[in-house]
Write the structure tokens for this entry.
Amino acid sequence: MAEDDDSEDEPAVSLGEGNAVEGAPLARVAERLMWGIEKSEVDAREGETTIRTPTGPRELSAVLEEIDQTYFATRQEFTDAVEETIGTGPVPTE
């Protein structure tokens, strides 16, 4: 196994240049939680987190207010409910 040590200094994928995207990806927020969980507990733990949405960054607490569901049994149930509220699609970079 003779690999160049120089390759470790370079990223595997070129990230390019451009504006940073504000907010955390929904998947990252969901990964930090344990499932099943009540909506109020999600709000207490992550409510102040700004998430990325197709319409721009939003505080998770505000998104949760629009969701009628009070308990999320699984991570998928949570992400589905949030995506139904915020939509899906490209996140604006400006």
